[in-house]
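Q: Hi! First time doing this. I have a protein sequence and I read that you can turn it into a structure. Is that right? Here it is:
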Amino acid sequence: MSLSVLTPLFLLALFHFTLFSFLNNATVSAANLHHQPHRRYASHNYKDALTKSILYFEGQRSGKLPPNQRVTWRKDSGLSDGSAMHVDLVGGYYDAGDNVKFGFPMAFTTTMLSWSVIEFGGLMKSELQNAKEAIRWATDYLLKATAHPDTIYVQVGDANKDHACWERPEDMDTLRTVVKIDKNNPGTEVAAETAAALAAASLVFRRTDRTYSKLLAIRAIRVFAFANKYRGVYSSTLRKWVCPFYCDFSGYEDELLWGAAWLHKATRNPMYLRYIQVNGQTLGANEGDNTFGWDNKHVGARILLSKAFLVQKVQSLQDYKGHADSFICSLVPQSQYTPGGLLFKMADTNMQYVTSTSFLLVTYAKYLTNAKKVVTCGGSIVTPKKLRTLAKQQVDYLLGDNPMKMSYMVGYGPRFPQRIHHRGSSLPSIASHPYKIQCTAGFSVMKSQSPNPNILIGAVVGGPDRRDRFLDQRSDYFQSEPATYINAPLVGSLAYLAHSFGQL
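A: Yes, that's right. Below is the predicted 3D structure, encoded as structure tokens:
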């Protein structure tokens, strides 16, 4: 037999062996690490981490803060947002460590918070109401942003001018420029993601607030129709406003598939199933991209649609189980992990891919368990238990089981980042410094080595580099900046883990 024939066979066998070894070693490593592989014992307080991961969103609030605001060093901000266009855009979230409201990542954050509650809200107990309030803070804003037909207000604030300042949200004096998409300047990806967010949230409130749930669903239907009819890449029409901050690199096809999947789930209208059946391949259902985050939703759509086949027995969506399995098999190559075992996809805010992937693992494991199915990667069987083991390892690394012995969640554990890239956290609070801090005056603090005076509890930062190193430098936004879309999927994973170890 020639070498050209042997080589592919050898590589295939090596892949199968690597898959089997990796996932089995993951189980052994977890057992050794915690000394007792029983579900009753865990080295982390997942319940505490869950509480803090949700509390973080209160520190990101924009607008008029409610009387029950728990992050008390934050005060009202952005109270005139939207006035430049004579619309009310007060509220919503600052996406990360700056003072801009970007609609694209805010909508994705809302979708993932909602999915966390849909799948694991029944396990959250006392935290369920806090999670719902975090979702509603976003959806109240998204309803304002979509109030006018065929128009969505997708950003408040001039990011370039905002980034030229280091000031508290409460002191903002940069232009609160309002950016919108409409028929003439379409933005399919942000519109379809907004539709997904509204649809997913409608499911969250279906039992407890039917009127609000119906409003969200009706708006989701209208917004998706707009996204589908007026197609265009928003980072082309709005490039000077949204790039390089939230440029869309994956195109808008993934958001159309994702949005249709959520509307199919939320409305049960057969038109969305037909839309998926007719357009799925065109929209990239079987593409090989395996990175799930604010930009690319293909993997999330595959996992979500696989549930319709596995659990609801929608036979026409059988292929999505195969697409979801391909994603699982893609997690095997050792080259994707740091020496300490962290999934590493990208230097910029890598932890978002860790939290989103961990969520997909525990969620897909739930679907597979329900359907009594497994994943087959070549000749190897991957069970739901192995998916949960891998997800737990990633979450445990985030919480402190790593070479730095550091929790990457602020306020959790004995050692966590002290100098996060976050204006409000790094500058003295209004209570301790009631006088305005001017635009550039705060940069002396940003460049200093002093710890942040305000602890943004629950914030998960971008995380370490490919070699597990973390410098805890405020100026390094790749590593030290938290973001709402890092925390949102983590909420679901922590709820599952807290429950499975008897902490909830």
